[in-house]
Amino acid sequence: MKALVYTGVETLKYQDAANPAPSAGDALVRVESVGICGSDMHAFLGHDERRPAPLILGHEGAGVTSDGRRVTINPLVTDPNSAASLSGRENLDPGRQIISMPPREGAFAEYVTIPERNLVEVPDDVSLDKAALAEPMAVSWHAARLGIRALHEADHGRAHVIGGGAIGLAAALSLKAMGVDNVTLAEPNGARAAYLRDHCGITIDNDPDGAPLIVDAVGYAATRAAASALATPGGVILHIGLGSSDGGINIRRLTLQEITFIGTYTYTAQDFRDCAAAMWDGKLGPLDWVETRALSEGGQAFEDIRSGVVAAPKIILKP
Fold it and tell me: In angstroms, rounded to a whole number, what is the distance separating the alpha carbons of residues 60 and 41?
């Protein structure tokens, strides 16, 4: 098969790769659509020691199984008998794996294998490009659920999101779908901000006064500092972004103002299914904010994202 392979820092090669061999209980999926995630970019730049070269990246996939089912892929592989899984928190399974991270190759390829239990079928009226958004949407759906649950009931009506990439946009859409009426978003890239405002109906505010619920969908020291300052007393900070690990949290303010800080990672299996169902039902909007390119052009797509010239929140690669 053909695959886009991460072969070294800032190097991706479109080349031949061995066809994956399904293990017992696995499905073989012919990949039709696969999104580029921020974590793929971190690996490409050499910033993710969990993803050493050579490796096939990509974990936001949708495609067709060998028996003809149209599916989207939950890429988080966990032990169904672990204590975390049995408590409904599979994402905290200490033995969790994810495709695009050893020992599992990713979906920037013509084929990928995944346990059957990780597949969610896609209705015929939903495109596989949209279905590939289930993974990043589920990340933010999970975070939004945790944040709303932690908020004081009187504070459920207002939230602010930092970062207008796919995760930030998905967070804004998830919060709205869950009943938060007043959601604003900060995005410093002018082209991206205009796209979100004009194409996605998002209210852009790069100088907000604050809100009870703050989502950091970027994860750098500067955005954590902004989140620490913007959360109103008694509020909640949801930290999704994995930009860097150091600095930014104002522990004194969080303590004195009783602000809850929640780190959120991926999703539970139920979150993934619930989010997919909401997508199929149209509750998260038209999901038409993607740009598609051939997998063979993936290297240039990474360069364009890195250069900040891509207005759409998500690029979908087509094997």
Answer: 13
Strand 55-56, strand 2-8: pairing: antiparallel
pLDDT of residue 153: 78
pTM higher than the cut 0.70: yes
Nearest to 276 by CA among 204, 181, 170: 170
Q: How many of the other CB atoms lie within 10 Å of CB of 103?
A: 6
Residue 3: name the closest of 75, 77, 55, 43 by CA: 55
With a pLDDT cut of 90, the percent of the chain lying above it is: 96
Separation CA 225–CA 260 (nearest Å):
14
Cα–Cα distance measured from residue 310 to residue 306, given in angstroms and rounded to the nearest whole number: 9
Contact present, 159 and 180 (Cβ < 8 Å): yes
In order of 73, 99, 126, 141, 312, the CA distances from 58 in angstroms are 11, 7, 21, 20, 18
Per-residue pLDDT tens for 205-248?
999 999 999 999 999 999 999 999 999 999 999 999 988 888 99
Per-residue pLDDT of 71-106, as tens digits, reads 999 999 999 999 999 999 999 999 999 999 999 999
pLDDT of res. 73: 98
Rounded to whole angstroms, the Cα distance separating 251 from 229 reads 11
pLDDT at residue 40 greater than cutoff 70: yes
Helix (H, G, I), strand (E, B) or coil at 11: strand
| DSSP state for residue 109 in the 8-state scheme | B
Structure tokens at 270: 């139920």
pLDDT at 154 over 70: no
Q: Which domains does the chain have, with CATH numbers?
A: 2-133+287-318 (3.90.180.10), 140-263 (3.40.50.720)
| CB 74, CB 135: distance < 8 Å | yes
What is the three-class DSSP state of 265?
coil
* 298 within 8 A of 108, measured Cβ to Cβ: yes
State the Cα–Cα distance between residues 8 and 231, nearest whole angstrom.
40
